[in-house]
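Section handout, structural biology tutorial.
Before the tutorial, make sure you can parse a SMILES string by hand: atoms, branches in parentheses, ring closures as digits. In the record below the ligand is adenosine-5'-triphosphate, and the chain has 410 residues. In the tutorial you will relate the predicted structure tokens back to the input. Do not try to memorize them.
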Amino acid sequence: MPLSFAEPARPVSLRRRPETLATMPTDAVETIETDHDQPAFAALVDSLPDPVMVVSARDAEDASDRRLVFANLAARELLRIQAAGGPLVSAIRHPEVLEAVDESLFGGLNGEAAYETGGAQDRFWRVRTRPLAPAADGARLALMVIRDETDARRNERMRADFLANASHELRTPLASLTGFIETLRGHARDDAAARERFLGVMAAQAGRMARLIDDLMSLSRIELNEHIAPEGKVDVALVTLDVIDALAPLAAERGVKLEIRMAERGRAMITGDRDQILQVAQNLIDNALKFSAPGGTVEIDVVDDVTAEAALAPTRAGAARLSLLSPDLVGGERFVVLRCTDHGAGIAREHLPRLSERFYRVEGQKSGERLGTGLGLAIVKHIINRHRGGLAIESVAGQGTTFTAYLPRL
Ligand SMILES: Nc1ncnc2c1ncn2[C@@H]1O[C@H](COP(=O)(O)OP(=O)(O)OP(=O)(O)O)[C@@H](O)[C@H]1O
Ligand SMILES: [Mg+2]
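Predicted structure of the complex:
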């Protein structure tokens, strides 16, 4: 009979069956008696995603007397509980948790505690305890529920890290500006040459702050819209050519040659947001120029109509490769590829997974005069994600890097 929460035949109540709970075996699912129109209580609790347990105790002074008289499936799996009735401390020993359990058992209070576990991945758990009516034999009972709060905690940390990083990035140029203002007010007041030089540095620092704020705003705008599919029609080849035109002076200044291979006009078409695709091309080409040695070459390819497999085929022998973002595929999708290859510094394998994190920069890399904000690739990744595309990187330290962005073809 189907389970109905609107009109339960009889309410499921912990109080109704304390004797069942106190004696419930771990394989209770099979053995519990079932009323005809009510699902088995243990089966119901077993299907809860959070670990749920009932602890019994008689002696407040004897900590080893706390026993796990019931544990649902999630609890048995998480704490590797073999049999009912075992001591609580053999499943969980965190003193704060034991204290919270005692508060409910002997103080009649709701308790709460948190603990962390290590292993392959740190996890963060919150435990809540509630007093229950005593068992038929007089034993005290408490309910204990554990919730995995790792994700919430990670998001919280990311937000805090993000704020700390953003403030730090802004504080550095600001401190430099403040320093120069002091100098200009002080001993450089009457030195026209020094004044000119300092004002130049100040303008550069102010420019850096403005860039950083622009990038931060851009990132938050992109994140806000990330779940809204873009609507316009974009010719990736045309947009890329516009970016190349805009960056040509920078390439000339750095002595870097651009080799361009474009799909025919009107062929590399995608559904997208033109300004955002422009930002993708701009960031990838800007990076390639920035990390190229003078006299180097940067190759820019726009290829229309390829499969995901072809988009991801290796292009550099012996390179470390990583997919920073991959779209969900159902099969048969065709993509437009935007690929940017440089022969510059390259990136060591261990840095690849972190490249699209905000503010992440590989330390000690030569990037010409301009220090970046480390937001470019984070922006690229969010934009491509919004367009349901993918991003992959291949790099050989000392030999260069290839970024491949691929976007679903119109
Ligand atoms: N083509 C490349 N060659 C070598 N390293 C690169 C290349 N592209 C990116 N990187 C590394 O990845 C880091 C992050 O790149 P990203 O574009 O996010 O930031 P940025 O270029 O430092 O700053 P911004 O793009 O905000 O000006 C760079 O600092 C650099 O260490
Ligand atoms: Mg960049």
